[in-house]
Every structure is written in structure tokens, then in C-alpha cells.
Model the fold of this input.
Amino acid sequence: MDQGLTRRVVLRDGTALTVAVLLAGPASTLGDIAIAVTPGEAAFLTDPELETLRGLVDRFIPGKPEDTDDGAVVAGCAEAIDALLGAFGVDPPLIYAGAPFSDRGGSTVNHFEDFLRLDSYEAMAWRLRIEGSKGQAKLEFNGPVPGFQTVYREGLAALDEAAGNRSFADVPGLGRDLILRSSDDPRIAELVDVAFLHTVELMYGAPEYGANRDLLGWEYTNYDGDVQPRGYTREQIEQLDPAGAREPSLEREPSTPMETLVAMAPLGFGEAAHGILAPAGGSLSALRSALAPIIERAEQRGRDGS
Amino acid sequence: MAREAIVIGSGAAGSVAAWELARNGWSVTVLERGRHMRGGFGRKPSHKLDTRYGSDEIKSARSFGFPDPLLEPYTARTRSEAGSGVERSAQGGLGQLGAAVGGTSLHYNAKFPRFWKQDFKQLSALGPIGGAQVADWPIDYEDLAPFYDQVERQTGVQGDRDLMPERTLEQSPRSGQFAMEPNPITYASTLLAEAADRIGYETYPQPAAVNSRRFKGRPACNSCGLCSGFGCPINARGDALVSWLNPAVRSGRVRVIARAFVHRIETTRNGRRATDVRYIDARGRKREISADVVVLAGSPINTARLLLMSANAAHPDGLGNRSGQLGRNMMFHNFTLAAAIFPEDIHPNRAQSNSLQMDDLVGPFRGPEVKALGLPYIKGGLVQVGGGVPLMTEAALYAGFTGPGLEHKLLMKQGLLHSKIAGSQLVHEDLPQADNRIDLDPSVRDYRGFPSARITYSPHHHEQAAAELLGARLELLHTLAPGAIAAAIVPFPLLNAGAQGTAHLAGTARMGEDPDESVCEASGRLHELDNVYVADASTFPTFPGFNPTNTIMANALRVSRGIAGGKGAGRPVATARRGE
Done:
């Protein structure tokens, strides 16, 4: 953690865009690495299960040496998923971070760290989502709900089985990729269907949820993160940032075909993006189905253009 | 003795209705199925309210402030699926509107255009379109104009009349300048403005109910970018709650019951009057409440669902549904999206979502290219010019393209969607169709056991043709952005046979003169009941391509002033009959 502190400060100093105002409030500059969620406080998985989960999130967002930046394991995604699975083990449950500000945008207090109390409706919804309906008739009004806990527990067990009854995490990265790609075990498919989007959310969302440690996911994407209550100045809104304010971080080009990248670019409009993501309900397969027509159109255009 | 009203729903329509009725001395109970999100509500002035919202994308992804997709699912299917007997092909969070005290306005984009004069008399001016139920509104722009003025003054709208195109001002005349000057225009939007200028299109600062300076004690927006879909953490946005409902509650004549789910309206035996409203409270207890007048303001899907669930012997097909039109003509704004792509970081997110508006694709267009597609005309809508998405949203979208692995991470580092695009959104007019409808799902239920609303929807050929023809113009515009290396569009009406995820909803209880062809009269009152009114966008006979909240509020103000006996609405029947 000490190393993280140092790195964080160094990065801030090198990031001209966000530093100047922030440093005006010295009390706030170090607080942003506080991790509100710590394993053990809210947790569901056993240590071996957590290790298997680390082996999984490592394939979702790989770190070194495959990439020059750390990935989901170092960012704490496995522990943060475990905190979600055990969200109701603490009070208030770790579902919604507090408001209105973290201490990253000029507030001296980090309100995000104090998670919100749920009302009975929210608690019922999130208990059902996490713990499942467990055969209770009043929760099975539209049929049984398996719950994240079951999906993870069974899926992680299936991964260990597929690894030859050892920890999936002990299999080399390429081997784990192969298992994920070739498995026809529905337990693994169901796990990946929710776990990848959980990993992505926690990697690139606010660190108070337990991942994105040291703002790793925001640093390598050159993302400002939450900036309230400071916001942006007129100059920052109207003009490009001064040259050199941001360093390119892409040492390696993505291999996604240009026509696909171009085709997906228009989805980058807030209202419309929400309209795609919300109906998918956190399911990767539902999201892929929703996006399939756009990919098909891109491929069609690629063929027409060639 | 004060007259009493029950308002069902506390969003844009319900809050304005409660405010206006209270101003006229009525005693109002607002029933809202969502929870309180603003600390101090009803006790503190709006500029001192706390909030449960922050610039937190994970909260947004976790349905914060929305009906829960597991507990209260919607279901959906396309029309062709319905034709082949498919009961539903989707289930979950498809309704897209929030559930909280203050409604969806707590996290809306707050774009605040007006509808145009031509939208109110479309059938007369442009004629019918096969397969659609295009209708004139029973009111004109001039009927709404004074209510637009008042809504904009009270909510606090930024904009600049002097920069609005001539045709926009002809079609939506304004009595005065906006309350506030525009926010700074974000760099990404100015690039697209240059491109628009090259092909003779005009962009201008989009009117928005967002403070650009201190207004009624609330601070100026600082263009943080996490706006649409997020509650404003600094209280810079005018909305149903801060601008209408909270002041109304503080007047002492309005009470709000949160987590109150209304499932039925009871009537007299002859069906002419609502006698009481049944709801389930926060603790799951069955409650009932009565008043002189019932105002429905739960948004189109929920208003239709409630009226359908209220069927009784006098109203066997749903309350006020003798016409058979209840639930029909469900309209969603489809979007055609466009983006120009740049090699460097142009920070499109440093804006109140997007800065500019363009009206050159509103239409109607009646050229040979339109006729060639078999249509008498097409209408598009406004274009919201210049925007991007925040990081986690980008990551989730890429996830659906790449699946897991290093490629996803490399795309994130490249950061196209959050840093290197200038995006736009054409808001498509959606024509009313009889078979685009809300009904009660035959088997899917909410957790209380009530049938879910089922959406049956497919876009009309008109929307697809508009996406085809206007999408090409939008793509050209983005191609011309200075410095752009590529451009593309996503024309949803052409790609999606079903309902697109959108927070822009209208229809299901259209208003009109003829009780055989409409559900409500011009006053918002159900034709068949003396004391039940609809104040939300359910009554809109058509749905032109403009962000609807300003019109929803203005119309709710008109309807509720009519209920209270004031000028500006149709004949206030309920009031007239009270002495009988």
C-alpha cells in the first residue's frame, strides 16, 4: 500500500490536468486511495474459491507481462466481486456508494466511502439478485432466481474441475483461455456471462467498491474519473488540453478491425448507451445479442468496401 | 373546504400537477412507487437539499433510482413475434424510466426544447400515412405557449434565443430570452458545428434546464459530463423535484407518499366516477384513499398498465377504454447515432452531455427520394450535437464487442468512446401505430403479484426511411468535422425490429375530440369518467422528435390548471359536475 501511495502521488504530479486545483487542498490528496471495501469484512468465497476467481479475472483483464500495465488481479477485482457476493454481511450492505462526492474532485470528505442504507425494496431486490430465491415461493413469482452466489460458487468449481481437479488459477494463462473458450459446461458459461461485466464495472468504476485500486483503471485509460465538485473550467471545456498534458499509453494497437471500431463509435452517446446497457441487465450474452446487428452491419460494410 | 386530488406518479407531470393544484388551494396526495432520493425533501428549500446521487457509474449500472428489473420486470416483443404467437422475447429493465420521488427527472439529460407548431396539426397539414394513426392534437402550439413560458421560467432554462435558427423561432416562437445564458460550448461540439456550417446546417446552444449561473440559490453547472443518467451531485439541474414538488410540499398542501404502488382505481357502479385509489404501501399493506379528482402521471407504460388493471364491470377492457385505444399508439423515440473519430483526446465528456442542437433534420421532407420509398413525407427530429460516454459505459459496450481478454483492455487504453469521438444523436419522430401497444403480460408478474406491462412494438417504415435518408446526411456532417479520421452512424430503426432503450415515451391514452378514437379529451380527462385525468405524455397523439420533458411539464400545467378551474385547458367537467 505504501508503494501505491507513492505511485499515486507521482502520477498526480505528472498529470498537469487534474493536479493543480486538487493539491490546493492538501488534506484531500492522499485520501483517494482509501479502500472502503476490504476482504474479510464482506466476503462470501472461501480462500481457494477466491484464488480461482483471481485466475479468472486475470484472463478477463490481463496484467503484466502480457501488457505493460497491471490488470484486474492487481486492481482487486476478485476481492471486490467477493465483496458484492457478501454485500449483506456488513451494514449497510455494499451495494450503493455514498454521495455526493469522493475526495478526488476537491471535496475534503469522501462521501462515497459511506455506503447508503437500502430501503426494504432495494434490500429485497439485491438479496434476491445475490443470494437467489432458494426455493422461497414468494421470491419465485417468475420462477427460480439462481443468485450470483450460486452462479459464482458453481462456476468456480466447474473451472477447477476443468483444470483437472486443481485450482484453475494454477493453470498457465493460455491454458485458462483455452478452458474458457472450449468448455461447454453451462456452469462456466453462466459464470462468464455475469463475471466479465462485474469485472469490467469494478475495474473502471469508483474505487470505493473495492477494485480500481490506486485508480489503475483510470490511469492507463487517461480518464479523469469523478471530478465533482470541482468540475471543469471554461478553458478545459472549450479548448484542447495543452500538448503533453497527457501521455499516450497505448504501446500496442488493438486488433479489432477498423471498420468494427468505426461502426461501434456512434454508440458513445450517453443516453443511447444507457438504452443498450440497461435492457441487457448485466448479461454478456444479452449485450452481445443487442450489439450483433451493429457488428453485422460493420462487417457488411467492410465487405462492400473491399 | 379544500378540494382534494390524488396524483399518481411524482415525475415531470405529477410534480407540476401537484404544484398547480396546491397553488389553487387544493389538498393533494402524491403516490410514488419509488423512494426518496433527496435528503431534507419537504422540509428544506430546494437549494439546501441533500442528495443520494454522485458521479458514480456503478450506481447507474445497478439500477439506482429505477424499478428493479427482477422485482418489477417489463416484458417486450416485436410485432412480428406477436403475430406468430410469441408471448415475449425480452424481460427485465426495459421500461427505461426511473422510479423515485421526482421521477426520471432526477437523472434526466434536461434538454428542454419545445415541440413545433407543425406537430400539433400533422394530419391536416401532411395527410395520413398507411399503417399509422397520425392525428391532430386537440390543442395548438398557442395553447401550450404560455405554459412553456411558465415552466421554463420556474425550472430555469439556459439557452440563447438570438442564436436560434429562423425556422426554429417561427415554429416555436418565444416570448422572451432564456433565463440563463448557455454553458461554455465543449470543444467536441464546436468541431461538429464547423462541419454543419460547411453544408449549410445551423447549430445553436441546446436549451437545457441546467443552471449556467446561480439560479434560485442553486449553483452553476461545471460541465462534469456525468449528467444524463446521473443525479446532479451539486444540485445544478432544474427538475420536477427541486423546481416544483419540493416547493409544493413546503406550501403545506401537498403530501408525498413514497414507495406507494397504485394497482387499482375503483369506480361507482355506473363507472362514471372514480371512488378510491388502491395502493400497497412501503410495508406491503393494502391501503385505499379517495379524493375528488384522480390525476394519472406515472408515464405512458405505467398509466396504461394501471388503467388496464382497473378493469371492472362498467369498464370491462380497462378504465376509459371504450374506444379500444387504451394502451395503443405506444411511441418511443428511436435514435440514429453518429460519431466523428479523432486521432487525439478531444474530451467530449466535458459538457452538460452535449452542448449544441441542430434542427435541419426535423422536416417534413417530401422530395422524390421520400416518395421513392413509398411515403408521402418523413419527419426526423432534432440532433443533439457533440457528446461521448464515461469510462465504465465505454468498457461495458466494448465488452459486448470483444468479450473477455487483452483486446478489451487495449481498446480501453485506446479510449475511443470516452476521449476521441464527437458523437451526435438524431431523435426520431415515432409515428403512432395501433398495434404498438402496452397490455398486461399473461404470465409475468411483479413481486406483488400484479401482471407486468408488456410492450409490443416495431418501428414503422417511416422511421426506417427517416433513418436511411437522414442518417446519410448525419454521416456526411460527421465526416466533414475538421480533423476527423472517420465517421459512422448507427441507425437503430434499421437495425432493431423492437423497442429501443430510450427514456422518451409517449402515447397509450391519446387525447382527441372523438371518444370513439381517443381515450382522453383535450383537458386530459378520460372521456368516460368525470374525475380521472391523465397529465403525463400518455395523452400525446403524436411524438415529434424533440426531448419531451418541457412539453410534458407544460401540458401537465395546462391540464392541472384546467382541473382547478383556470383558463387554458378544455372544459373542466369534474369541477362542473361536483355540485350535482
